[in-house]
From TrEMBL:
One of its GO terms (molecular function) is acid phosphatase activity. It comes from Blattamonas nauphoetae. The keyword Hydrolase applies. Residues 1-15 form the signal peptide. The chain crosses the membrane at residues 394-416. This is Intestinal acid phosphatase. SUPFAM superfamilies: Phosphoglycerate mutase-like.
Length: 436
């Protein structure tokens, strides 16, 4: 009886799942920088291990959302999914690897694994890493870097950085910390670390985490607006704009409300920033193929949903993720528990919490100028409207044709007239009296 009761609770509590959004980090990749003597995978590219990690995540998600919860069918349909990657090889390939796990039959002929993945120029990607492309975001970090609080917190690690520099024979400082910590992480996977290197790696990892808590602040509204103003709007207010934020001719309430699965294949930075903006207490750097999940639940039909609420999940511990034991629910800031499901937050409470910080497409210019601080806003102005109807275009053509004919006739007339004049001149010189 008891197991049945549990089963019943499990099934009914998910009966109203409408859609799921995922912010993912790409899988295992080559390092951003290397140590001369180490032979590591190709810099920055997704490795076969990274692809496998994403396939595994995709299979896990299929089991949950397709097999168990029947959110969308097993056969691929572009109607069901929205897939967006930042403009990097590793995130685009991670997206397609995850989809290969999600749709084992593929999307192409002969079950080919071939999926459309939307991407945006790095310079224009306000969803993935706007704190790196917005002058205001960059400024915030520049100020933080010289603040006493930051300097005091980081000075604890001075000795350890010096030690690492000696050990690796490179310059590990606060600007290169992330790269060398990552090179060591990569070496650990591909070749192994000796005990001294392992100890140094652990120290650098702590130093990096401390630095990242400053880099991704959870108490700075300006930073939250820059970083997650566009993404949170897509997640909690409306749905992704099909061609990204900067495209001019899109409608705000696009049919994406009907997409069941929305994958944002991005970076550790995107995952970190998202979690910090939600005031999740993040214990360590997001591992490869880490996923933040937002489940949107409601009863009733679009657009008249009743009791909408959101459930948030993240798996903080890489090891349990590898055991196939993904995702622990968490409670973000501003959450008012849903009366329908104690693990969920009412959509209303989440919208209230972030209402002043998010930017719909209609506020594109405000976001770009006031929040992001971009000066090149003209680039994003809507393209001039061109009419494509047959009528006016045809009229233009006819007008041009008529003018052309008139021009041709006049040329011929003038030419023949001139010929006549010259003939007359030859025949009768008095016609043009010559003054000798
Ligand atoms: C991405 O992959 C392509 C080949 O598909 C390669 O030519 C290119 O160099 C890679 N880009 C980067 C930035 O690594
Ligand atoms: C974020 O969480 C911490 C505790 O983890 C809390 O002290 C703080 O008030 C929270 N901030 C907001 C804005 O909710």
């Amino acid at each position: 009886m008891i197991p049945f009761l549990f089963l019943w609770i499990f099934v009914t509590s998910f009966a109203d799942l409408i859609s799921v959004s995922l912010i993912c980090r790409h899988g295992d990749r080559g390092p951003r920088t290397t140590v001369p003597t180490w032979d590591l995978p190709t810099p920055e590219q997704l490795t076969p291990l990274g692809m496998q990690q994403q396939v595994d995540v995709g299979e896990f998600l299929r089991k949950r959302y397709v097999d168990d919860l029947r959110l969308f069918p097993t056969e691929y349909s572009s109607k069901d999914i929205y897939v967006r990657a930042s403009n990097y090889n590793r995130t685009i390939m991670s997206a397609s690897s995850q989809l290969a796990g999600l749709y084992p039959k593929g999307a192409g002929p002969n079950n080919l694994y071939n999926y459309p993945v939307l991407t945006e120029l790095k310079h224009d990607d306000f969803v993935a890493r706007s704190f790196q492309i917005c002058p205001t975001g960059i400024d915030i970090w520049e100020k933080t870097k010289v603040s006493q609080k930051y300097l005091d917190a980081m000075s604890k690690y001075d000795e350890q950085l010096k030690k690492a520099s000696k050990l690796l024979n490179v310059d590990v400082n606060y600007d290169t910390l992330e790269k060398y910590q990552n090179a060591m992480e990569c070496r650990k996977q591909y070749g192994g670390l000796d005990p001294a290197q392992e100890e140094s790696f652990q120290e650098l990892s702590h130093a990096l985490h401390t630095q990242e808590l400053f880099y991704y602040p959870n108490d700075n509204k300006e930073w939250l607006k820059v970083t997650d103003g566009v993404l949170f709007y897509e997640l909690f207010y409306d749905n992704p704009a099909q061609d990204g934020m900067v495209t001019a001719n899109l409608q705000e309430k696009i049919a994406l409300n009907k997409k069941k699965y929305r994958l944002y294949s991005m970076h550790d930075s995107t995952v970190f920033a998202t979690l910090r903006s939600l005031n999740y207490s993040i214990p360590s750097h997001p591992y490869y193929a880490a996923v933040v999940i937002f489940e949107f639940h409601a009863s009733g039909e679009y657009p008249n949903y009743k009791n909408p609420y959101v459930k948030f999940y993240y798996q903080p511990d890489e090891q349990s993720a590898r055991n196939g034991d993904l995702w622990v629910p968490f409670t973000p800031r501003g959450c008012v528990k849903s009366p329908v499901d104690g693990d969920g937050c009412t959509l209303d409470s989440i919208q209230k919490e972030f209402s002043g910080d998010t930017f719909p497409i209609s506020q594109r210019e405000k976001y770009l100028t006031e929040v992001c601080g971009r000066k090149d806003v003209d680039r994003y102005a809507p393209a001039p409207r061109t009419t494509t109807k047959g009528g006016p275009k045809m009229l233009h053509l006819i007008l041009i044709a008529v003018l052309g004919i008139l021009l041709a006739v006049s040329v011929v007339l003038i030419f023949t007239r001139c010929q006549k004049i010259f003939k007359d001149r030859k025949a009768n010189k008095e016609y043009f009296p010559i003054n000798n």
